[in-house]
Description:
Layout lengths: L1 H6 L3 H13 L8 H11 L3 H14 L5 H13 L3 H10 L5 H13 L3 H13 L6 H14 L2 H13 L6 H13 L3 H10 L5 H13 L3 H13 L6 H14 L2 H8 L4 H5 L2 H13 L3 H10 L5 H13 L3 H11 L8 H14 L2 H13 L7 H13 L3 H10 L6 H13 L3 H14 L4 H13 L3 H13 L8 E6 L2 E6 L8 H17 L15 H9 L2 H12 L6 E5 L5 H14 L3 E4 L4 E5 L2 E2 L6
Parallel strand pairs: 3-4
Antiparallel strand pairs: 1-2, 1-3, 4-5, 5-6
Helix pairs in contact: 2-3, 3-4, 3-5, 4-5, 5-6, 5-7, 6-7, 7-8, 7-9, 8-9, 9-10, 9-11, 11-12, 11-13, 12-13, 13-14, 13-15, 14-15, 15-16, 15-18, 18-19, 18-20, 19-20, 20-21, 20-22, 21-22, 22-23, 22-24, 23-24, 24-25, 24-26, 25-26, 26-27, 26-28, 27-28, 28-29, 30-32
Amino acid sequence: MIRGFVSKxxxxxxxxxxxxxxxESFLPNNFTFPFVLKACARLSDLKLGLKIHTLVVxxxxxxxxxxxxxxxxxxxxxxxxxxxxxxxxxxxxxxxVSWTAIISGYLSFNRFEEVIDMFERMLSTGLxxxxxxxxxxxxxxxxxxxxxxxxxxxxxxxxxxSGRNVFVATSLVDMYAKCGSMDRARTVFDKxxxxxxxxxxxxxxxxASNGLxxxxxxxxxxxxxxxxxxxxYSMVGVLSACARLxxxxxxxxxxxxxxxxxxxxNSILGTALIDFYAKCGSMxxxxxxxxxxxxxxxxxxxxxxxxxAMNGHVKAAFxxxxxxxxxxxxxxxxxxxxxxxxxTHAGLIDxxxxxxxxxxxxxxxxxxxxxxxxxxxxxxxAGLLDEAHELTKKMPMEPNAVVLGALLGGCRLxxxxxxxxxxxxxxxxxxxxxxxxxxxxxxxxxxxxxxDDAADxxxxxxxxxxxxxxxxxxxxxxxxVHEFLVGENSHPLTEKIYAKLEELGKELxxxxxxxxxxxxxxxxxxxxxxxxxxxxxxxxxxxxxxxCVSSKDVIxxxxxxxxxGDCHLAIKLISRITGxxxxxxxxxxxxxxxxxxxxCKDYW
Length: 604
């Protein structure tokens, strides 16, 4: 009877029956104890568990492997990992269930290094782990980002032919995806004899989160061709991919696959939809979703605050923040990231300082390195480079590449080559292969006509095999995403696109536009610089949009890099000449161009 109640997850009834059994003076045996201890573990009833442990010793069952394993589970579940380990160590002959019990205990309390260590020790005893154990140790590798251990476990899985199990294989895919190794994840995925919806979702999410949105969409459509219905997580992945590409119509179609009320009653889906609309520049629709959600958790509030800030509605983001506590929620670190990013984009130095200080002094949170990065960015953009530099020195942690990159960006904006060189030396130590650091300094040299220094920097890049990230822009037309690279000439409408650019160039010059050639890196003739600027990927995408997008619709472009100053000026004028609204989202913020002006107020 006790076993029956436990198997039905009716743990309270199981313990009631155990109490009745003891009152009737029946003594439990080695078959009874494991089920009663399991009930205690699932209810986290350590008090009763301790009494039962005492009885186990008195009854002479403290060396029974099944009883001892149940005790390991009890102590581990209640957070007493040291006691759990001591009991585990006392088991004379450990079986696979015993090892899995202690491994699961460590995993439950985020002791991931111990999980991997115990797994390695288990293998050294000659025991073969089951799928349950393999899934858990792969989860530990995933949380640690420990690709080396993950690959070692993968080799073991391959050698023992354990990869046929869908749960093990899916865990492998997840581990590789979250460690950023998408090629390895795809290899495992393609070799799986059986895939469930979770496997597909993990792969789609992996592509989306690793900056491969087109691959995420391709896989989503392949999944649809195999007649699989998307679940919550595959929807989140594909909406994230659409957001990254600015594919508003495609995202609309994807969201139609689930009933609208399904979004409103699921905070995960609702958050993904708000994030999608916000990143596509349709904040009014994101706001409508937020208002109509049946339940709003803090993650949802954070998405709305970040979306408002990202789209330039900073004061509205501040207002939303003021309401959080009224709804019984307490802001977390991500809430302040949205607020500080908004302050950075709008140049609100005093507000930024106030929110940054309130993290510690009002809400008793600890500022993260990302918060410091936002403050350095805010101060650097405002020209307060000395203060920004001082903040990087006073941080309680070593500044990372993001923080130093923000300071370097401020140096570029205000042409402080001396500080930029100092920052770059540190950046090269941290990430010597990142081309963006070299490009920023080269821009500073070029703007100051220091062509020899720029050439030396290019030589260093060439010697080290470092290539500049190529500018790339995307635009969606009729549900199809078109990609343009800088100097693109492979698009079917290339001839018309360049003809449109030439036509626009004449109209721009008539408006008094002169290409800002200081944004070109190389010491070459001015006419050639003008040609290079005219081929930037966002200009190609906008020209294509002017040809193919209905005059009633907004032209929406997404770029992988920061929009350069020349393109920013040109697009403002194009919006006035053509009477079109043009939204460009670069890797930093939104730019909404209307009638010759930009929502960023030339502060980006």
